[in-house]
Design brief:
Strand content: 15-25%
Distance between the termini: 18 Å
Largest sheet: 4 strands, antiparallel
Radius of gyration: 18 Å
Strand order of the largest sheet: 2-1-3-4
Shape: globular
Oligomer: single chain
Length: about 150
Amino acid sequence: MFNVSQMKEFKKLEYFAIKEIRIILNKILVEYLKIKPVVAPIIDLNFNFKAMFNQSGIDLYQHKIVELIMTNRKLHNYLNEVFYQHDYKQILIEFSNKSYFIKIDDFEKHIWEKCLKKSSKNEHILQMKKRADELKEIAWDLLDKITSY
């Protein structure tokens, strides 16, 4: 079963994995968007994302970005599955009162795929994924026990 100390350890793994994802993504964005000079620590940079269709868009909040990276999902596939009623053409990135519009295919190729690749090799992220998989197994076992009565 899962105890309090294991939960604390999981939260610690989660914290460091999210931190690493932000660092990886922010470095790639700074490089791609040619943002200079950056005086703040790379983790403290705050980028906001929107998937755009026509003149409208949907916010891609930080927790969703983290979830997609942790599960190694392509952004465009996610948008097509969940928001199938619209054809997303661009990603809007907002940073420091500036807006950057990037074609979704270019975003996938030059930003997202690099982020997924670097994240898949990061030790903190790998540890978090492994622990999350272990917790899923515990949850399934628990569900089996509950439903067997």
